[in-house]
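Appendix C reproduces, verbatim, an entry submitted by the partner laboratory led by Prof. M.T., so that reviewers can inspect both the input and the predicted structure.
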Amino acid sequence: MPDTPADAPALRPETVAVVAGRPPHSPDAPMNVPVHLTSTYVAGGELGYGRYGNPSWTAFEEVLGALEGGSCVSFASGMAAISAVLDLVAPGGLVVAPRHSYTGTVALLEERAQQGRLRVEFVDISDTSAVVAASVGAAMVWFETPTNPALELADIAAISAAAHEHGALVAVDNTFATPLLQRPLALGADLVVHSATKYLSGHSDVLMGAAIAASEQHAAALVQRRTLAGAIPAPLEAFLALRGMRTLAVRLDRAQANAQELVRRLDGHPALEEVRYPGFGAIVSIVVRGGAAPADALTRGTGLWVHATSLGGVESTFERRRRWPSEQPTIPEGLVRLSVGIEQVDDLWRDLRTALDSLDLLG
């Protein structure tokens, strides 16, 4: 970041996202760290080889690490980051995790449990007492907040304090909230994970992940896992993800404002059983009356909203989550997860309302 006087006030996160990870302010210096397309470095320096490091990764890691308040390690995908964090659990260790989580996370936990690499106990993460009880004897408490796609909230500070009393690590997937709305390390967590594919990059054109550690010991372990497993991000992806983070604050402000207005307008619509919104962020889940058929009809009935499985881009997308066989059976058949974008909210509402109004609820 730019040099500032020692007594200068700390920069706000919105500013950090813009100014961190830049080259020095010297004459004719570029404003941005370039894309370093190389697998090989001249010997004698710190990088050594293309799998060990890349300046394009470093710039991205500096920004996200500053935003989350820890040491960032970038990965080829969010799942690669999740896998590396779970590798910190010793063989046979117990992982406590939410019953409602991203399906890839659940599948990875279940696979490792079946292989005998760890044990897993799924809990209602919004029930703090149950989570605390389950953390006795655990090696790690892993959770999302809000959860995907149920949008349940967890008490990060209370769970972290209890888990640490029992000797467990705490890892939080912060993809939905981003560090602009929630900083788990400041609330006691040991590790944070992001699918940088989503809000951080923000334009549906990057596949990348990251893990941020509160301690240098855990950061070093994550770097080792990335190096040995080869789960490294491509330099161009790191460049694009960093460019996306420069506008995270303005994108998130607009998307969140749109989501809050849509929640207000959706409330009480006769086609819906429920509107779920945690009070912040740009993800909304609605439960359509009648189950799968009308929910599927909704996803086919819009012109502006895009039926797609990802989220966090500038465009508004939605999907019925139970269309995936791997989704938890406790998620309602008619639940549709909305990722609200930055379009004009009246256009979004007109398109969505028209599709909702046209549902044949009697069928």
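The chain has eleven helices and twelve strands. Additional entries are available on request from the coordinating office.
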